Amino acid sequence: MITAVDTSVLIDVFSNDPDFGAGSAERLRECLRTGTLVACDIVWSETRAIFPDEVSFTSAMTTLGVRFSSLNEKSTGRAGSAWQAYRKAGGKRTRLVADFIIGAHALHQSDRLLTRDRGYYRSYFAGLELV
Prior knowledge:
Layout: E1 2-5, H1 7-14, H2 21-33, E2 36-39, H3 41-48, H4 54-64, E3 66-68, H5 73-88, H6 97-109, E4 112-114, H7 119-124, E5 129-130
Parallel strand pairs: 1-2, 1-4, 2-3, 4-5
Helix pairs in contact: 1-2, 5-6
């Protein structure tokens, strides 16, 4: 079982978030017991931004067991069409395309997505299992 991880979950754990850190860490452990954890380009970049340097970031991701999973053409195309549908439906958040990329990567290159955000993933990625 391949579980794609959303940025919010990783930041919860690495920053020891008082509200979500423990729960996110437990969900990560559960997902690791059943398979592999991966992070796409967007999640990798967003998570790297909270570390002081590349060495500490790489060490933390390795220790946690998260592997890099680059986006493929099918995922990026699906993200664009989902974002287009969102905008046509009246969606106003212009920077949300990154979240659509994360959802499409999980849908096409993983078995499920570990995330705290349940809103638009359910609406725009039918069939994507959310943890």
